[in-house]
Amino acid sequence: MLRSLSIANYALIQSLEMNPSSYLNMITGETGAGKSIMLGAVGLLLGNRADTKALLNPDQKCVVEGNFGIGNYGLEDFFRSEDLDFDPECIIRREISPNGKSRAFINDTPVKLETLKDLGKALMDVHSQHDNLQLGEGEYQLDLVDVFVKSQIEKNDYLSAYKSFQSSKKALEKLSQEAQEMKKEADFNRFQLEELAELKLHEGEQTDLESEQEILENAEEIKSKIQEILAQMEDDQFGALKLLALANQGVQQLTKFAHKFESYGERFQSVLIELKDIAASLEEEDGQVEVDFAKLENVRTRLSKIYHLQKKHGLDTVEALIALENELAEKVFLVENLDEELEKLKKIKEATEKELTEKGKALSEKRKSAFQPFASQLAKLLQQLGMENAQVEFSYQPITPTKNGIDQIDILFSANKGVKPQALKQVASGGEFSRLIFAIKYIMADKMALPTLIFDEIDTGVSGEIALQMVRMMQDIAKQHQVICISHLPQVAAKGNQHYFVYKDDSSEKTISKIKLLEGEERTIEIAKMIAGANPSPTAFESARELLGG
Question: Which residue, 22, 352, 385, 536, is most buried by CB atoms nearer than 10 A?
Answer without folding.
Answer: 385
